[in-house]
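Lecture 7 notes: from sequence to structure.
We start with the chain below.
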Amino acid sequence: MLTKKIRVILIDDSPVALAVIKSAIESDTSIQVVESFLNPKSALLHIPQIDPDVICVDFFMNGMDGLEFIKIVMSKFPKPVLVISRVVGSDSSKNIFDLISAGAIDIIEKPTSGHPKDYLKTELIYKIKLASGVKILSRKFDSNQKIITSSSHKRFNVIGIGASTGGPKTVYEILQNLPASFPIPILVSQHITFGFLNSLVQWMNKHLQLKVKIATNEEPLVAGYVYYAPENTNLLVSQSKKTSLLPKTHQQTYCPSIDIMMNSIAQNYKQAAIGILLTGMGNDGAAGMKYLQSQGGMTIAQEETSCVIYGMPKAAIEQNAAQKILPPVDIAKYLMYLAKQHKSVPLL
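Predicted structure tokens for the same chain:
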């Protein structure tokens, strides 16, 4: 039986770019470029009839940029959208977050020469396959549920957050509801396209009350700070309660590894640690959450309908590794509840 190909449309106002990207994509026989458009407005007219599995679009285009295009697509006929663009620049942090907030699944660097580098081709094909499995939801989780609290008076001293596809926006939705006085340092391991983390951190620093930084080795963990794992580097905490950075190993599928981060906070903080697993493909973080729970820590997984991809939270939930299952806004509320044990945070 023939396997159905992933049907893709390309939108870029450069004929050369379209040709290069199409050649790269179709080097994988499981993907078919069914149509290419030089004009995003023309593409909008044809998307309902073509009904592609994935849309690939540039950001910088004449007449209508990629951000406006994505907003229209998501409002009229939601589809997985992958941005292929050179968005790095003076406004890169804002551009990247605006695209993700509008609904882009991910962003990949646009080839800069006649033929894309092998790693870009491999990543592009991988991202398209990933995006083709994303179920774009037309509804959002209506968060009116009561946060069920307990009589526990544990004092928590570290939070580890793991996320992949859809994670930048989801992490932001949680962190924007935490005050500068939030008393628990936060570690984040985010699977992200190489080259975009610095821009993401810059953007978050402009819009959050908490201070956000890319972690360096042997840093003491300080309340009010969010520490992101560097790209292609594992972020851990040591016995001395400081950051520890480890390079990617050949055996690793994901880097930074959420499991490695969760295991380290479980070993060194035990019941004083909180683990949170957010949207993403695969199962990274599920085993680490299970281990953290076995050490007495608190574990939280993102609720299904608020996920871009439910894979990672689902894996944790199926292993009974999540004590709470909540959408982002309620994760923030619950963190504030748990932080009440620290006298510097106002009661809810």
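Points to note: The CA atoms of residues 130 and 281 lie 8 Å apart. The radius of gyration is 21 Å.
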